[in-house]
Amino acid sequence: EASEITVTVHELCEETMCPICLDYFRDPLTIAECGHNFCQACLSQYSGESDVQASCPQCRGTFQKRNLRPNRQLARIVEIARKLGEQEVKVVKGKGQVCKEHQEPLKLFCRDHKAPICVVCDKAKEHEGHKVVPLEEASQELTPFLAPAANSCLSTLSFLQNLANTQREETVAQSRRMHQLLEKQEKRHLAQVDELEKEIARKGEDHLARLYRELSSLEGIMRKLRCSSLLFLFSFLPLSLSIPTANVTLDPDTAHPCLLLSEDHKTVRMGHKMQKVPDNPKRFSYYTFVLGREGFTAGRHSWEVRVGSEGAWAVGVTRESVDRKGLVYFCPEDGFWVLLYSQGTYEACIDPSSALPVSGEPKTIRVSLNCDGGWVAFHDADRGSLLYVFSGVSFAGETLFPFFYVGDDALLTISS
């Protein structure tokens, strides 16, 4: 039993020693992630100057420095182990050992000093008259008295070991709980940040949309102001003094297959079936459009078109580069400056569309183009009144062509 106590004390001492300095723990710290313990000074020296994370010296696992915890229970166990290690176990301790003073085997036991001695010590003056017996005999005599103490020591050591294991398990469990709590907090904070970013983005989009609406409104106001100014100006100019008349004829190579052109290429109307005509790049194949043969890049030009109140029609100017095979919109952005008639309403084709206050039903529309001045105007040629003006246009030197559109029952004729 004495031998068992010695072994157990030795094991306890090993459990209370720092793996770095190989000495008893001093101010022990527990790594929450893995549960290993080290001296505070040893761990600080090992981990270096990093303020965030480091690796465990024992298992090499990564840990956060903020998760280090002082292990006070382990510190108390270390003190107990230190005292047990310093105590001399009288029984069997001298067996197999030699006297420190004479380097002789410790074979005798001095009852007066209660310590093992060698044969040289027995003859020394220090032990003269003392009761000395063989060490084995003393061991047999003292064993019955030491058995209860040995059992108590074994129980204490077992308790301390269990306490150390329990403390380690509790530390690891607490660390896991704390880690889970930190993860939940991190997820909650990230969710809040994500929601804040979305809210900022939504407000930014709303703000941009509002600015766009206000800008569009301002552009509409400016366009109306320019139009009003030009209307006022043009109202004082006689048509005969405005712009010279151009000789415009229709270009059959651009006409939609459903359109029927007169022999002099001055009149166009809708047919009832598709005609077999060459499919060339200039021909419109999606809408029933046709262009004038003559194009303009500079100067001032005008032409008159006789219109009616049947069906739908449109006259104006278009860029040479407009799409002729697909979907387009009657608006300046797509290269059209057009006056449209449909269901008794006259409209300037802008975005948004603008209905025109036209008195009566014009029989002839005069289209005026100023390539250099950047405007297209529409007059009621019979009354001499201005209907609408597209102003502030940048044609950028591109060739412009007279434009014509006819729907069902509509008929357009270019005046000679």
UniProtKB/TrEMBL annotation:
Residues 179-206 form a coiled coil. Residues 94-135 form the B box-type domain. SUPFAM superfamilies: B-box zinc-binding domain, Concanavalin A-like lectins/glucanases, RING/U-box. Residues 18-60 form the RING-type domain. One of its GO terms (molecular function) is zinc ion binding. The keyword Metal-binding applies. Residues 228-416 form the B30.2/SPRY domain. InterPro entries: B30.2/SPRY, B30.2/SPRY_sf, Butyrophylin_SPRY, ConA-like_dom_sf, PRY, SPRY_dom, TRIM/RBCC, Znf_B-box. CDD domains: Bbox2_TRIM7-like, RING-HC_TRIM7-like_C-IV, SPRY_PRY_TRIM7_like. The keyword Coiled coil applies. Keywords: Coiled coil, Metal-binding, Neurotoxin, Toxin, Zinc, Zinc-finger. Neurotoxin that produces dose-dependent hypolocomotion and hyperalgesia in mice. May directly act on the central nervous system, as it is 6500-fold more potent when administered intracerebroventricularly than intraperitoneal. Belongs to the ohanin/vespryn family. This is Uncharacterized protein. It comes from Varanus komodoensis.
